[in-house]
Amino acid sequence: MPRPTTRLILLVVAIFLSLPTRAPAQESDVTESILTTEVGHFIGQTVTVCGPVAGTAYFSRLRGEPTFINFDRQYPEQSFTVVIWGRSLGEFEVPPDKLYADKQLCVTGRIETYKGKPQIIVTSPDQIEVQDEGLVPERFTYEERVLLKAMLVALGHQVDDGTGEWDSATAQAMADFQVEHGISDEGSRSPQTLRALAKAVEQVPSDEQQKILRLLLLNLAQREEAAARK
């Protein structure tokens, strides 16, 4: 049976990974990174939207020859769509419907709506970044990233600090963890990685578990103090 501290850590993991991600961006947050499920709160704003591609389609016979990239679910149940008109296809070395199929993407642009569905019109490949499907930091809140980094440290990996910033050292530590636990490169590795981290809690000594909890609480306190000063 897991120790009391272990059960507490597992509870914290479950709570933090189920929390809402973030509040809507202010007008000045031009490069705010959000999830595809949050785009409805950012209509009219220029942001970076990150999420998994569920389907792509190119319609050469439709007016404007559009390419549609749908996120999270297939059309018409998609949460968000990227539209690339035919006049912009020459900017892409590979047809976008082939290039971005089944990828994890981050797309930057102004969010508009069409028939009630949020979308970004893309005119250049510079607006689209293919993400590592292993674990996409933008999909987690600051506090969740603190938790993930604290777990990596407790398991003996090296990261730069105890904040929620996701630097190259953290990315390398996470990649090393995935290799150590035989997490497959096929499909989405994010659920596999999170389950492996949750299971690894039982391997962490009690004093290290307490450090993780303390680090989480201190970061939350610092965030609230910063908010109170505004």
Automatic annotation (TrEMBL):
This protein's record includes keyword Signal: yes
Q: Which SUPFAM superfamilies match?
A: PGBD-like (SSF47090)
Domain Peptidoglycan binding-like: where? 143-197
Xref: InterPro entries: Peptidoglycan-bd-like, PGBD-like_sf, PGBDSf
Tell me the protein's name.
Peptidoglycan-binding protein
The residues forming the signal peptide are: 1-25
Any idea which UniProt keywords this protein has?
A: Signal
Q: List the Pfam families.
A: PG_binding_1
